[in-house]
Amino acid sequence: MSDLILHNYYRSSTSYRVRIALEMKGLTYQYVPHHLRHGEHLEPAYLSVNPQGLVPALILGDGTLLTQSLAIIEFLDETRPEPPLLPQDAPGRARVRMLAQMIACDIHPVNNLRVLTSLRTLFGAGDEDVANWFRHWVNEGFQPLEKILTSSAETGTFCHGETPGLADICLVAQVTSNARFRVDPTPYPTIARIHAACMALPAFQKAAPQNQIDAE
C-alpha cells in the first residue's frame, strides 16, 4: 500500500487515531494539515475532497476516499493484517469494538470541535461552561469504561491482552484530548496504566499531536 494521503489536523483525536494505526502498520503517507480552528476544513478545496468537511480523510493510491476513523482503521487492518488491531476470535473482536465505541461513539461525538463551537455560538457558553460540558461527558463514559477494564479478565497490559489494538488507539487519543480540558485522571487508574503502556511505544509517540508538522 503506497501513495496514501491523510487529510488531518494535529490536535484532532480522530486524526490521532488514524495516525497511530498507520504507524503501527508501518505505512508511509503524505500528511496534509487542515487547521480546524481557522475553518480550513470548510473551504471549497477540502469540501471537494470530503463533502462532510471533517477530518480525517484518507485517500488511497487509486483515489478512493475513506472517512470516519474507525472505518479507516478497520480497512487498514483488513488490508495490512500485521500487526493485528483486532483479536482473531469473534468474542474478542466484539469486546474490542465495544470498548472502542464507548469512546468513539459515546464520548467523542458530543465533545468534538463543532459541538463545542455550537455551545458557544448558539447558547452563549463561556470557556468554563464548555470545559465543564467536556469533562461531564468524558466522566460519563470513562466511569463505566474504567469498571469494565478493571473487572475483566481479558484486560492485560493493554485494553485486550498483551498487544495494543483498536480500543487502545481510541483510549490514547481521548486521554490526550482530556488533558487540554483538565479532566482529572485520578478516578481512572486502569485507563491511566494502559495509556502509559501505549505511550511507551514508538508508534503512539510518533503519531502524537505535538510531533506533527502543524503542531502549535
Could you please describe the fold and organization of this structure?
There is one protein chain. The chain has ten helices and four strands, in the order βαβαββαααααααα. The chain is globular. The model has no long low-confidence stretch (mean pLDDT 97). It has a four-stranded mixed β-sheet with strand order 2-1-3-4, with helices on one face. Strand 1 (4-8), helix 1 and strand 2 (29-33) form a beta-alpha-beta unit. By secondary structure, it is an alpha+beta fold.
Short description:
With 216 residues, the chain is an alpha+beta fold. It contains ten helices and four strands; from the N terminus they run βαβαββαααααααα. Strands 2-1-3-4 form a four-stranded mixed beta sheet, with helices on one face.
Task: Chart the SSEs and their pairings.
Layout: E1 4-8, H1 13-24, E2 29-33, H2 44-47, E3 57-59, E4 65-67, H3 69-79, H4 90-104, H5 108-111, H6 113-123, H7 127-151, H8 166-180, H9 189-199, H10 202-207
Parallel strand pairs: 1-2
Antiparallel strand pairs: 1-3, 3-4
Helix pairs in contact: 1-3, 1-8, 4-8, 8-9
